[in-house]
Amino acid sequence: MTDDHGQWASGAYGNSEIQTPVMDWMADTGIRLDHAFCPIPVCSPARASFWTGRIPSAHGIHDWIAEPDRREELPTIEGQKTLAVYLKEAGYRTGLVGKWHCGSCWRRQAGFDTWFTSALGTRAIAGKQAYYENETVVEFHGHQHEILTDRVVRFLRDGEREANGERDPFFLFVGYTNTHTPHKGEPEPIVSRYRGSAFPDIPREPFSEVHGHARIAPFDPGEEGRREQMAQYYAAVDVIDRQLARIVSELESSGELEHTLIIYTSDHGHMNGHHGLHTKGNATIPGNFLEESIHVPLLVRWPGRLPAGRVVEQPVDHCDLFASLLDVAGLDPVTAAAEVNSPGRSCLPLLRGDPGDWRREQICEYANARMIRTPRYKLIRRYPGMKAHWPDAFFNLGEDPRETENRIADSRYRDILAELDAHMEAHFARFGDPERAGINLEALTWHNAFSPWVVMPGENDHRQ
Fold this sequence. Notes:
The protein has 12 helices and 21 strands. It has about 475 residues and is α+β, with helices and mostly antiparallel strands. It has a single domain, classed as Alkaline Phosphatase, subunit A. The strands form 7 sheets. The chain has a 5-stranded mixed β-sheet with strand order 6-5-4-3-7, with helices on both faces. A 4-stranded mixed β-sheet has the order 9-13-1-14, covered by helices on one side. The longest helix has about 30 residues, at about 220-255.
């Protein structure tokens, strides 16, 4: 699970300039999901939904956590049963290498045998840097992606073999952050190949206030600066693909490649000039649900268990991945979903070609705003503390895929709005926790352009 990797930014999803042979290979020999989503378009709560299977209004994290600046006052998912705990109980050797960002990164979290995460925050780093290895601080010098991949290879080689030669079952979560801002410092030989790019896959769009947003991070570094940022971002994707090559090579050399399920995804999407914006859901006040913010890459390869070369159009999100991995491990995803009150469903039947009664809509939230999206429509509702300043929004994606015309006041859509509202309200009533619901967030201010402070009412205020 990478950080800030927009779905549009790989050859597997049609980008004409970024070199991603491993991602392309995963799509060709596995499954590409074209409508994979995050439950919330910002990192910490999206990752928390993957680990817990719960929506943000149930796990309680509603924006990114400013680790390592503050410690015990920050929200966390400690105490909530996670995917790692389930898999450890099922007999898997478990590990995390790379980004966690769900609170208390300095402690090895429950369910993990191996814990190796950055002690310096979320951004990709070159040079001297500190990590938490289990709960010991260790220092390395070099590019972070190479340090992380070295640890991945060590984890894969450390597995014990039974008398019959089979390796013990393992689950490894790998989190690179190269595609996260500030979009600089990638290896020069790789960046240089993209400085001459034309970037035809990124629309040159002006910022529009049709959503009622205020832009907090104007994407206007000048033409030369813009091109350098884009070259660095493209290089970051290329670098990540090269790390995947090392991981795949290790699995292949050990004889485990054809017995291993590999999933590639991102915590949320990203905009690099799309809609005149840069970054993701927090590129605007209030947060946005633009298509590039909520879509994530999702490539799945499992030889002999899943078909090759299939493209899936139905919506799947991180909560569904939670359930799907439990299903892969031989656990009952329905029972687990009921235990943690998750909306997630195993998508294995869907991936095998049996959609059954799979849903047609995706529901997201961000602070006290909520969104429901179908193949044709998108409705955004804003709640106390926001509604007086920023309007609700409704878009006919079939006619207006770039979301340029807010049709919330169009009487022709009255019945559709009522149906979408009812579906969204039922979803949050069933899967939310009133004590942790984002709808209760009453005040939103911003400390600076990339440090939102979300003020929770009541005694358990959290500032993120």
